[in-house]
Design brief:
Layout (H helix, E strand, L loop, with lengths): L1 E6 L7 H17 L4 E3 L13 H4 L1 E2 L2 H14 L2 E3 L3 E5 L2 E9 L5 E6 L9 H4 L8 E4 L2 E5 L8 H9 L4 E5 L7 H15 L2 E5 L2 E3 L4 E3 L3 E3 L5 E4 L5 E6 L4 H8 L2 H4 L2 H8 L2
Parallel strand pairs: 1-2, 2-4, 3-5, 9-10, 10-11
Antiparallel strand pairs: 1-16, 4-6, 5-6, 6-7, 8-9, 11-14, 12-13, 14-15
Bound molecules: the ligand NC(=O)CCC(=O)C(=O)O.
The site of the ligand NC(=O)CCC(=O)C(=O)O has 11 residues, from loops.
Length: about 260
């Protein structure tokens, strides 16, 4: 499957600009044969958390309309990164996923809020996992800081995900953690990891991209540049079964040893 990663330089507190950029890039990657598109985290507003009352997407309505239309028009699956939303009285960091027929197949609110970027002061955490199917692919989707919780990603792999999508706004200062953790999650879960970071800066952080597509054996198939760009990369999902047969980690797990420890 041809996967397009769109590593945007997200404009701070400028949803109009960001929506038009996303529309432009999705049209472009579709014309280059992309079958599935992945966007970064909080691409509508960036971390303009103090302005969410004015800027967050009410019930994700606009995002859902735009992504559904793009998915249908260009016949691409869209893992819509995440956007800031207002649902009821609360704000969330929300991922929407659409099939290539424009159908909403998943909605996920970031489960682990990142204190270093003040998310815990403005956002509510989600409480649901995110496993979904796109065509014949079983996938999971988590967001940025969720990456630091291996048990959360493992739970998605155990629930059937053969590929984990991970949109992010991961700052340059910790980009070495990003690369190592992504590779580790692919190897330990024996799945693809497709992670899309942003570029550019906001008032508090600089972001240097380096989005990654990693195969289940840990091989890095693509690393993004440090500036805004996109790539369309061919991925063979059958590699998951090969790796899981070569080292049968899932058969060799001994959950009865470790699950009681999690309950403490
Ligand atoms: N947006 C985020 O969740 C950032 C996470 C991050 O930078 C980290 O180091 O973890």
């Amino acid at each position: 499957m041809k996967i397009a990663c769109i590593q945007l330089d997200v404009a701070f507190a400028e949803p109009e600009k960001n929506f038009s950029n996303v529309q432009k890039y999705i049209k472009k990657v579709a014309s280059e044969g992309a079958e599935l598109v992945v966007l970064p985290e909080m691409w509508n507003t960036a971390y303009a958390l103090t302005q969410l009352e004015q800027l967050a997407d009410p019930e994700g309505q606009r995002t859902k309309e735009v992504l559904s239309e793009l998915a249908r028009t260009y016949h691409v699956h869209i893992v819509g990164g995440s956007v800031s939303t207002k649902k009821g009285d609360h704000f969330y960091n929300t991922m929407y996923v659409f099939s290539n027929e424009g159908e909403l197949v998943a909605e996920y609110d970031k489960a682990h809020l990142f204190r270093l970027m003040d998310e815990h002061l403005y956002l509510q955490a989600g409480n649901q996992a995110n496993v979904f199917s796109l065509g014949s692919i079983q996938a999971g989707g988590v967001i940025c800081y969720d990456l630091r919780f291996p048990e959360w990603l493992r739970a998605h792999a155990l629930a059937g995900a053969k590929v984990l999508f991970l949109p992010a706004q991961w700052p340059e200062t910790r980009i070495d953690h990003w690369k190592i953790l992504l590779q580790a999650r692919a190897i330990e879960n024996q799945c693809f990891v497709i992670a899309v970071n942003r570029t550019g800066d906001d008032p508090n952080n600089q972001f240097n991209g380096q989005s990654m597509i990693i195969a289940p054996w840990g091989k890095v198939l693509w690393t993004g540049a440090e500036h805004e760009e996109y790539a369309v990369i061919d991925v063979d999902f059958s590699e998951v079964e090969e790796v899981r047969t070569r080292i049968p980690v899932y058969e060799d797990r001994r959950p009865s040893l470790y699950e009681p420890l999690f309950e403490k």
